[in-house]
Amino acid sequence: MLQGSSMVKVRSARWQKQRTLKLLEDGVTVWCQSQKTSSRAKEQQSFSVMEVECVREGCQSETLRQMASSVPEGRCLTVVFKGPRKSLDLLCSSEEEAQCWARGLRTLQERVYNMTHREKLDHWIHAFLSRADQNRDDKMSYEEVQKLLQLINIDFSEQYACSLFQKCDRSADGRLDNEEIEVFCKELLRRPELDAVFIRYSANGCVLSTVDLRDFLRDQGEDASVTHAQSLILTYELNEWAQRNHFMTPNGFTMYMLSKENCVFNPEHQRVYQDMKHPLSHYFISSSHNTYLTKDQLTGESSTESYIRALSHGCRCVELDCWDGDGGEPVIYHGHTLTSKVPFVEVIKTIEEYAFKASPYPLILSLENHCSVEQQTVMARHLKFILGDKLLLKPLSELESSSLPYPEDLKGKILVKGKKERMVEGGLSGSSDLDSSEEEGSVGKSSAMKEDKKAQAGVSKLSPELSELVVYTRSVPFKSFDYAAKNPPTEMSSFSESEALRLIKDSGMYFVRHNCHQISRIYPSGQRLQSSNYNPQEMWNAGCQLVALNFQTAGEQMDLNRGRFLQNGLCGYVLKPSFMRQPNTSFNPENVGGGPGHRPILLTVQVISAQQLPKPEWDKPSSIVDPQVWVEIHGVPIDNIKKKTNHVDNNGFNPRWDCTFNFTVHVPDLALVRFVVEDHDYTSSNDFLGQFTLPFTSLRTGYRHVRLLKLDGSSLSPASLFIHVKVTPCKSSAEP
Questions:
Q1: Hey, which of 8, 58, 381, 684 would disulfide with 91, CB 3.0 to 4.6 Å?
Q2: Alpha-carbon distance 283 to 576, whole Å?
Q3: Where are the alpha helices (DSSP H) in 401-542?
Q4: For the chain, which ranges sit under pLDDT 50?
C-alpha cells in the first residue's frame, strides 16, 4: 500500500480511468492520483481511513453489479464513505491486490479506532509538521513554523511566535531539528487548564499521591477506591519511579485526562445496559425515512449504499418504497419523481448482509407498497429466499400472536411492516385499507397516486404471499385513540409530522398512552422536497417509537437522533422512561409542572476550553477561526433552552472561555444535551465547526472532555471541548 498500486476507477461500463492509489506515510491518508486540477477535484484525490464506512469485496455496488459479466469479481473493490461522498469502485490488477487493499484498509480502520487521544494528537500535529516542511529537509525554519501555526488554526503574535522559536532552537542555527521540534510540539500542546486542576488537588504541587487522586476521583463522582486510583497510576503514569511509589506526575495526569476514561459520555452506556425484555412498544427505535435516497426527493440517486450507512449506524427500521419494475422485477425509488431506481432484490441482498453487523436486535422493514399483486408476490419470494431464517414468518408462540414480543426474543430477526389481510365473515378483509405511510407522496406524485387508487378501488391489491409475512407490525389507518385501544398491539399506524404535532398538542396524554399500547411511526412532510428533517424530540416526548428521519441529511435533527441512540450500546433500541410505559399514565409533554417524570435537576456546565478545532472546509488557508460554544438542552417544551459563550478571536487551536451556565432540567429522563462549536462571523451566519449530543442521563460529572463530531456524525478527532459538569437535584424534585 505504501508503494502504491495501479487500479481502474469505475463509474460505468463506458467511464473507466486509470488511477494510482497509495497510502501516505501518515498511515491514515490514501492518495488517489488524478489529472484534474480544480480545487474540488483535489479534495477528492485523497481520503482518510477515518472517512471510510466499510470496504466491500467483489461486485457489490450497483455499478459493479451491472458489469458483473464483463469484470472479474475477485479483482473488484468498493470503498463506501461516511456522509454524502460517493463510493469509490475500483478494479485491481489482481485478486491478491484487491484482497491486500481490503484487508489493509480494514486493519488501518481498526488501528485508528484503537488509538488513544494522545496518539491521535501526536499524529495530528506531525501531519501538519509534514505539510509545513516545504523543502522536505525534516527541519523547521522560522518561516515554516509560521506556516505551521497558520495550518493548525492559531494566530500567535509575531513576538510570541519568535520567542517560542528561539526558546526551542537550542542549537541557535535558525532551524529546529528533530529533538527541538519535539520540544516545540510539547510547548505547543501544553494545557495550562489541566495543570491548574492538577495543582488544585496536589498536596505538594509536584505529584498526586494516591490520597490526592482519590480526592479528585471522589469529586468526579467516580470510584474513589485505593484499588482504582492505583490502577489508574499503573495505566497512565509513564515515570517508573512515580509508578513504584504510587504517584501520578503532571504528564501522567494529562494522559489520564485525555483518555477515553474521561469522556463526558458514561462508558457504562456504551454497552447494552437496559432491560431488553419489554414489549417493542416500550422502546424508542432508530428509524430511517426514504432510506434508499442519497440526496433530495425529486432528482436524488437511489442506492443500496444508503442502507449500508443506515444499518451501520444502528438503524433498526428502514423504508422500502416499492414500485413495479421492468421484466417483472420490483424496484425501489421515490415514485413519480426523477429519482433513480434500484432493484428490490439488490436492496434485500444488502439488508441480508448488513442487518445485524451493528446491532443484534430486530430489524423492521417498512414497506411502502405500490406494486401490482404479481410483483408483490415476487417481493415475497425474494424476502423469503434471500433472508431465509432471519425473516420472521410466524409468532414466537401461539399464545403471543396478539401481543408484542421483546427485542431480546427477536434477536437476529427481520420483521416486515405492511398491510395484512385478516379473516372476517364472508372472506378476507383489510387489503383495501390504506396505511398512512402510503400517503406520504410528494407534490409530484399525489395526483398520480389518486388515479392509482381509483383504478384499483374495490379490487384486492394485496398479495396473500406478501400479506402472510406481516406478523407483529400490521399497518392500519389511524381512526382514534379509543378505537386503537380496543385493537391488538400488533397493529400500528403511521402519522405525518403535522398530524403527530396536532395530536401531541390536543391530546398529549392520550398519545403517550397509545404509544404504550401500540407502535407509532412518524414520517416527514411530503413538502420536504430537499429531504430536510423535522424535530424528532417533539415526537419522543409523546413516546412515539419509529421517528423516521432522512438519514442522508445532516444537521441538528440528525445530531439529536444520533445522541438519543448513542446509549445502550448503539443497538438502535432505547427503553422509554417508566412513566411512559404505564397504560394509564398521566404524563403530558405539553404540561410538566408536576406529576410523572417531573424531577427538576440543576445542571451547571462550565465551558473551559477547546483544543485543535478545524477550519471550515471552504475557508481560505490563511484564515483563522473565531470560535464560540453553544450549550443546548432539548427535551419537553419547558426544558428547551440554548446558551452561548462569547467568541475568541483568531484561535482554533486552544481557545479559552471559562464560561459557566446553569440550566434547570424538569424532565431529565427525556432530555438531550448538545454542545455546538461555531466560527463566529459578524457579517454572515456562523459556520459549523463540530458538535456532540448525548442523553442527559448519560452525562458524567466533573472535569470532562467532549469529543467533537463532524456534520455527518463522523469523528473530528482530536478536536474536543474541556468542560466541568455539576448536577444538583432541586429541592422541589420529589415526584408525587
A1: 8
A2: 5
A3: 443-456, 464-467, 481-485, 497-517, 536-540
A4: 38-42, 425-426, 430-439, 441-459, 733-736
Candidates 209, 259, 198; CA nearest to 233 is: 209
Q: Which residues of 165-176 are buried (b: 16+ CB within 10 A; e: fewer)?
A: beebbeeeeebb
Q: Which residues contact 601 (CB under 8 A, 6 or more apart)?
A: 664, 665, 668, 727, 728, 729, 730, 733
DSSP-assigned beta bridge partners for residue 391? 414
CA distance 547 to 495: 10
Maximum CA extent, the chain: 99
pTM score, two decimals? Answer: 0.85
Instruction: Enter the DSSP assignment of 255.
Output: H
- Asked if residue 566 lies in contact with residue 588, where contact means CB atoms within 8 angstroms, the answer is no
Between the two ends of the chain, the Cα-to-Cα distance in Å is 65
**DSSP secondary structure of 165-187:** HHHH-TT-SSEE-HHHHHHHHHH
- DSSP secondary structure, 564-627, as one string: HTTSGGG-SEEEPPGGGS-TT----TT--SSSTT---EEEEEEEEEEESPPPPTTS-TT----E
Q: CA-CA distance, 421 to 423, in Å (whole number)?
A: 7
- Residue range 297-327, pLDDT digits in tens: 888 888 998 999 999 999 999 999 999 999 9
Looking at residue 433, what DSSP letter applies? P
d(C-alpha 626, C-alpha 646), whole Å: 10
Nearest 5 degrees, angle CA 231-CA 232-CA 236? 125
The pLDDT tens digits of the residues spanning 7-46 come to 888 888 888 888 888 888 777 888 787 765 544 444 557 7
**Cβ contacts of residue 335 below 8 Å, gap of 6+?**
321, 323, 370, 441, 445, 448, 449
Smallest CA-to-CA distance from 725 within 56, 286, 220 is with 220
User: What number of residues does the chain have?
Assistant: 736
The amino acid that residue 144 corresponds to is: E
CB atoms within 10 A of CB 656: 14
Question: Which positions are catalytic?
Answer: 289, 334
- Give 232-239's long-range contacts (Cβ < 8 A, gap of 24+): 232/256, 232/261
